[in-house]
Specification:
single chain, 28% strand, five-stranded mixed sheet, UDP N-Acetylglucosamine Acyltransferase, domain 1, nine-stranded mixed sheet, Spore Coat Polysaccharide Biosynthesis Protein SpsA, Chain A, alpha/beta
Length: 328
């Protein structure tokens, strides 16, 4: 992004049903589930603010009242937030089209709302501008399973397809992180009011029209947190310091848990009560107001706010919340 350019705006896609994280998401919208005791969306907003974004729009469909209340309560890193309500899910491009009047003044960012990434988006914006691209996708090396092929010049030559035999060895086979940089011209390729997908319907048409679609390859930390395994891994990586510069909310230090054996790294929220002989950690996140019974052992796990852990429980790689658990 050039110094003279207006600050880019952004859209965060948050209208999904969160089916892979059920039953955790039966009452909590996926973008608000906590990672290291911090709502997932807070990491996204901090990422955008670090790139100079001042305003963002978030779409919503599932549990809209709970989502909007949660959005008001979280730390938006100074961003002015706007909502786009979708009574019917419109897909990645259809939801974008609905928010077009907010985004159509210049280059903008589009992000999925279910991942963690440690990246400087200013570098991506500069790459996009220098490439003269209509669209840039932020990619992650994922050989040999990558579905996008990127030439050394940064142009995507193979789109949403397995790596074919005989493909040039210099072409990277990559996966997609869920981050796009886009120009407003794409709105002309999206019909209004219809479910439409950007990766499978907009980009192929853009390429067919001879426009430049590029790939910025990110080699740092990235984690899709929308599955049980990904959610547990994201919590463990953040609390263990393996998530690049990503960290729990500043000031969210672990209080002393009297009587417990605490093995670092671990994180505990306010109001945690522990019984006798409890052992916690390593790589464990304990949410606020959790109660842990005598003799419990909790390792490489996430215990969400308000959960009762029974006496004698032996947990390793578990995700527990009031009334249930996630199976990875």
């Amino acid at each position: 992004m050039s110094a003279a350019a207006r600050p880019p705006r952004a859209m965060v896609l948050a209208a999904g049903l969160g089916t892979r994280l059920r039953p955790l998401t039966n009452l909590t919208p996926k973008p608000l589930v906590p990672i290291a005791n911090r709502p997932l969306l807070e990491y996204t907003f901090a990422l955008l603010a670090g790139a100079g974004v001042r305003e963002a729009i978030v779409n919503t469909h599932y549990l809209p009242d709970s989502f909007e209340a949660g959005l008001r309560d979280l730390d938006a890193s100074g961003l002015a937030l706007h909502l786009s309500r979708e009574p019917r899910i419109l897909g990645t491009a259809g939801g974008l089209k609905k928010a077009g009047s907010f985004l159509d003044a210049g280059t903008f960012l589009l992000l999925n709302g279910d991942f963690l990434v440690d990246i400087d988006l200013r570098q991506v914006l500069d790459f996009h501008e220098k490439q003269g691209a209509a669209a840039t996708m932020v990619l992650t090396p994922d050989e040999p399973a990558g579905v996008l092929g990127v030439d050394p010049d940064g142009v995507i030559r193979r789109f949403i397809a397995p790596r074919p035999a005989g493909e040039p060895p210099e072409r990277l086979s990559c996966g997609f992180t869920g981050i796009h940089v886009l120009e407003p011209e794409i709105f002309a390729l999206i019909p209004p009011g219809k479910p439409w997908e950007i990766n499978r319907q907009v980009y192929p048409e853009l390429i067919a029209r001879g426009r430049r679609v590029c790939g910025f390859v990110h080699r740092g930390y990235w984690r899709e947190a929308g599955s049980p395994a990904g959610y547990l891994a994201a919590n463990r990586e953040v609390v263990a310091g393996r998530a690049g510069a990503l960290a729990p909310r500043p000031g969210a230090g672990t209080p002393a848990l009297a009587g417990a054996i605490c093995n670092s790294p671990m994180l505990a929220g306010r109001g945690v009560l522990v019984g006798a002989g409890v052992e916690i950690g390593p790589e464990t996140v304990i949410g606020p107001e959790v109660r842990i019974g005598d003799g419990a052992r909790i390792r490489r796990s996430v215990i969400l706010e308000g959960t009762d852990v029974p006496a004698g429980a032996d947990l390793d790689g578990a995700t527990l919340f009031p009334g249930g658990r996630l199976d990875s």
